[in-house]
Amino acid sequence: MFESIRHLYDRNRTLILITFEAFWLIIFLLERAGGGAGVDIPQFIYVNF
Amino acid sequence: MVLHSTSSMRPLVETIAICLSVLVFCLLFLEAGLRIIGRAPSNVTEGVFEQDGDSYRLSKNAEKIINWPSFSYSIYTNAFGFRDVKKGNRVLAGTPYYMFMGASDVFANGVNYEDSFVGIFADEASHRGIAVLNTAVGGHGFLDQEAILRDFLTGSVHKPSRIFFFINDMTMHGFDSRRRGVLIKNGYILDRDNWRLAYLRLLIGNTSAAYSFFRDNIRKLSLKWISGDPFEASAQLLAIYAKGGRMYDDATIAQFEAYLTRFEQYCAANGIDIVYVYLPLSNSFYLNTLLARSGKDPKAYDISYYERLMARYSAKRGKRMISLAPVLREHHAKGMELRFAMDAHYNKPTNRFVGEYLIKDMFGDP
Question: Most-buried pick from B41, B128, B213, B263 (CB within 10 A)?
């Protein structure tokens, strides 16, 4: 089983790395563009106005 | 031919499967990482509302703690189902007490009770032997709050000596409406007609830090780049302040005044003094700027109309009215931010000076 997983990884290494890096790049960009401080203000489920 | 198409499908299926597997792994990693650094899902406890017929009210002895890296606040309700500094019973027998009635501005979304202007006032009042109950609920109008009061007073021997009846531009504009068609699920308010998808999003937001991360950052981006302005003037806001709106109609004004008069008579019959408190909407202080930016004519709107309307009525009826507009205007003119960045409720510093203003107005200088 480990051999087949390793074989799968070797065959698709580029795709795996690109997907992995693209995901974390998006996370980084969202974090930076969103203000970099997480949810720093209240977001109410129900807002009166 | 069949073999060719089958063999060409396999790389595509395999590619999709590989990408999805990597994304799932990354999402799990993101979920764990966010929780480790303290960025938990948005709502880690149940909501604070309960069904009240076709409408809603706060549930009794509720607790909601909201924690973010740079901000946290808590909501507690007492055994009456009113916001308070902690859960549990409130013993009022033999103690004079005041009631604060209103909407989410009086409930003080975003700040702890003790940092809200009601909480600040209540602390001062307690030193003078007066208790305070805050019946305000986010989204409630006059009729909703009156229903809460009537329910509370039914069978109650000990009644408040005074009610601070908070009025804002929105509640005046919708003085004759009640919240209907509301469904409460696990303490959360949902539209009865379309609740399932909204509830699903709520549940995911409750359980997944990764979902909350994406949701919150996409929301911030959309406000920055699509809306362009966190203080966007909504159609609802413009309708409230537009000259010639419903509250300019003489018949509607007469209905509004008749409603207040009936409410005063109900209070008088129960030996309760009423003080009106006008609290303008925070966005009203930014409205002229927003109108200028959007090319609308500021002369077509009047942000002080409701204050004048309420003042005229109070004078006619010989009722006391406290207007918080001047003190808010004064601080806004000094460049102070009155509200939260992404929410129109008054922030902690604003609650502080409003509470101090009310204390000074009611009890005089210390």
Answer: B213
User: Among B132, B192, B196, B198, which Cα is nearest to B355's?
Assistant: B132
Tokens encoding B179: 């919240």
- Distance, in Å, from the CA atom of B54 to the CA atom of B60, rounded to the nearest integer, reads 18
Put simply, the answer to whether A40 touches B69 (Cβ < 8 Å) is yes
Chain A residues touching B12 at Cβ < 8 A: none
Interface test with A, best of B183, B216, B283, B338 (most A CBs within 10 A): B216
Q: Is there a contact between B59 and B187 (Cβ–Cβ < 8 Å)?
A: yes
Residue contact B104–A48, C-beta within 8 A: yes
B220-224, B247-251, B357-361: range with lowest mean pLDDT? B220-224
Place of tokens 């129960």: B270
Phi, psi of B4 (to 5 degrees): -65, -45
**How many percent of chain B have pLDDT more than 90?**
60
- The answer to whether residue B344 neighbours chain A at the CB level (below 8 Å) is yes
Which pLDDT tens digit goes with each residue over B265-310? Answer: 999 999 999 999 999 999 899 888 878 877 888 899 999 999 999 9
Mean pLDDT by 10 residues, chain A (49 residues): 84 92 92 59 38
Output phi, psi for B351, to 5 deg. Answer: -60, -35
> Two tokens at B91?
């013993």
The DSSP annotation for B246-283 comes to GGGSHHHHHHHHHHHHHHHHHHHHTT-EEEEEE---GG
Nearest to A37 among B69, B170, B212 (CB): B69
Query: Nearest CA to B320 among B252, B270, B274?
Result: B274
Q: How far apart are CA B325 and CA A16, in angstroms?
A: 59
Instruction: Determine if the pTM surpasses 0.90.
Output: no
Cβ contact B105–A48 (<8 Å): yes
Question: Does residue B140 surpass a pLDDT of 50?
Answer: yes
Give Cα separations from B339 to A35, B84, B97, B281 (angstroms).
18, 22, 29, 10
> Residue B204 contacts by C-beta under 8 Å, 6 or more apart in sequence?
B211
User: For residue B339, what are the β-bridge partners?
Assistant: B346
CB contact under 8 A, B139 and A46: yes
